[in-house]
Amino acid sequence: MSSNTLEAFLSPQLAELKEKGLYNEINSLQGSNEATIKIAGKNFINLSSNNYLGFATEPRLKKAAIDATEKYGVGAGAVRTINGTMDIHDELEKAIAKFKHTEAAIAFQSGFNCNMGAISAVMSKKDAILSDELNHASIIDGCRLSGAKIIRVKHQDMDDLREKAKEATTSGQYEKVMYIADGVFSMDGDVANIPEIVKIAEEFGLITYIDDAHGSGVMGAGAGTVKHFGLSDKIDFQIGTLSKAVGVVGGYVAGSQQLIDWLKVRARPFLFSTSLTPASAAACIEAIRIMSEEPEKIEKLWENGHYLKEGLSKLGFNIGNSETPITPCIIGDENLTQKFSARLYEEGVYAKSIVFPTVPLGTGRIRNMPTALHTKEMLDDVIAIYEKVGRELGVI
Ligand code: PMP
To answer: Where does the secretion signal sit in this chain (predicted)?
Structure first.
């Protein structure tokens, strides 16, 4: 039972959220997160995970995790800076740096933590951050934590970036100016214009920060969006998560040795929070090895992405401007979007609706995340169900 003061705060707020249909009930999955999942005893085709390559249940990752648990135990025991680092964490960072084509890397406990720690380790209230308006919540929170002036840049609008970069760097108000964006935007699947970003950054002396949570393991033969454009040495911070394509948990910064040396003494989630479990570190190392040696997994992911996009687009659905396997199906009206997702669920397709404030008003959508694990038959079923529900609700 909470205190009266806490009750008085929570009760009306929770009641209001529930009344407005804004309280997000979290489904309980019975078993693993794969191409199909089980909820309340019923099987669904799963189009909601970020398990792009199917690594969350890959047997070789499981074995690596089990072996590491036998060797190191279940926990790291303490913060690395206090108790020393396990060699498995060093090994993971070396593997990430090699894979990302950078001098060094530092691993965090999650992608979210990584953004909280990395941005605030370098930027302060004397600085300004130019931030794409559709950046992920963890970037926004990391920027806020740093105390820097946050200047929103219109989504992927390079003219707006140039203008604001010029303004910020010539105003004399700031010591440093950073530009920060997702590498692949998770709600639309569009890809950051890295070549133009690099050009503008060089012109105005910007620090560059790309969070490639959805591009790592997907773009650039797995090495990410920056590598895809061949500009690995031009972006200061390459952020990634170990929870999506890599299939485990964790986050990282890949960059110059000097940057990583600095983060190891200034990024607070690294300094004051216990590191990844040895099992997670070992599974991530195995994932990176498989990604480099077996390109067919990434090829299959792209093949599935193309197949689903083509199928939905042929039916007349608006699939937006995605350049990656992320397949949004833009419905528009928020209530209709919710209804669409609920009908898909009844028909056995688990694909979440995304509405305002996560995306702009009037652009409600179902976000479909095909993975390398989906079979053509599953995707054919999905397309047939979309057609049925789309006609029923007058969307197509
Ligand atoms: N950055 C971006 C762009 C993301 O999409 C996400 C995941 N939703 C994160 C960071 C957070 O990553 P993690 O789940 O590893 O904390």
So the answer is: none
What is the band of 84 on the pLDDT scale with cuts at 50, 70, 90? confident
- Which residue, by CA, sits nearest to atom 13 of ligand 1? 111
Distance from C-alpha of 22 to C-alpha of 19, rounded to nearest angstrom: 8
Q: Ligand 1: does its nearest atom lie under 6 Å from the Cβ of 308?
A: no
Nearest atom of ligand 1 to the alpha carbon of 251: 15
Long-range contacts from 259-266, C-beta under 8 angstroms, 24+ separation: 259/104, 260/93, 260/103, 260/104, 260/105, 260/106, 261/104, 262/121, 262/122, 263/106, 263/117, 263/118, 263/121, 264/81, 264/106, 265/81, 266/121, 266/122
Question: Residue 110: CB within 6 Å of ligand 1?
Answer: yes
Output the CA 305–ligand 1 centroid distance in Å: 20
> Stretch 192-205: mean pLDDT, rounded?
98
Catalytic residues: 186, 214, 244
**Residue type, position 268, single letter:** R
Q: What is the ipTM, given to two decimal places?
A: 0.99
Domains of the chain, CATH where assigned: 21-50+295-392 (3.90.1150.10), 57-293 (3.40.640.10)
- What pLDDT is attached to residue 90? 97
